[in-house]
Amino acid sequence: MTKTVAPADPWHYPRPELAKKYLEIFDIGLNSARGLFAKRRMGKSEFLEQDLIPAAQVEGYLTVYLNLWDARTHPTPSLVSALSRAMEPTGLLKLVKRLNTPLKKVKASGKVPGLAEGSLEAELADDPAVAGPLLSELLRGFDKPNQRMLLVLDEAQVLASPMHSELAHSLRAGLDRRKQNIKVVFAGSSEPTLRRMFGRSTEPFYNWAPLEPFELLGTEFVKVMARKVNKLSRYPLTDKDALAAFLALHNTPEFFRRYLNRYLAYAELGSTAALDDTQKHVFNGANFSDVWKKLLPSDQEILKLLAQGVTELHSEPVRLQLGNALGLDKPVSKNTPQHSLRRLQAENLVAKLDYGNYQLQDDAFAEWIRNLELDN
Asked: Which runs of E-coded beta strand occur in 30-110?
């Protein structure tokens, strides 16, 4: 049984009870999978990696974590690599030899060389016909009754992309046969996409996992973080100021931690100064500017409208507004907002809530766009 270790991040807010809750659901046996959604920067990935996975290891689970957003170009070889890292390297070597694959680097050694650097993923991506059989064989390795695995797929909405349909079907088939042995957490930042993934009959994972919102951090988290600050600073941070800052930063843990870092560096200036500096950086970030510059003018105009709360993007008045913004003297065609929304969804910038209803995925980006409009 693998014992967990203290998290490397001293500012991590542990949530053992929440981790225990999810594992107990699996122990009951009524469900072998859960779906969790929360917007980005809300602490979901940190919880999965620093709370849920260590707790599962203590319970005797073999654990596998993969952020599919980082692997969205070639998710199959990345999943194969993540699964293989949870096994003995020699076990993968035997598997590769038995399948008679052309992976020369793997065959040439008694271990898996450069696995951490992604060489296996690169080789499998070059030969996708090999990745599928390897994935199936790796999953078959958990057919023994005394083995349990927790598979955590972060940003799982990537699996809903049509280009990854083959992987989704293959993974569904492999997991279906091993519900007693392999438990799965599908976590993601796009609630609409996850709802479609589990709620539409044409999707591979239809009705496969119940979907629920991830429990967000709140008042107790803020107070604990303030106490940590006060152990390090000669200038106490009051709960009132900390809670006000958390609210002003849209209850976003990642932004709040930036605020705390700024406060510790310049505590003598007070909470207001730390908050002003944080807001200036998180809502006017260079990253947003880089993303913005790469967008087509029509996509930029659609984002401006969404940031302002406009929803009727296909109406004639809005299409006329788009036409004027793009230098035309007439409304754009209905295809213009339609194509823009499709591109923006593909870039994970916009989410479709229901028919004709869209919103920006990132509140900070929406705030940045609104500030951009004010500056102009």
From this structure: 33-37, 62-67
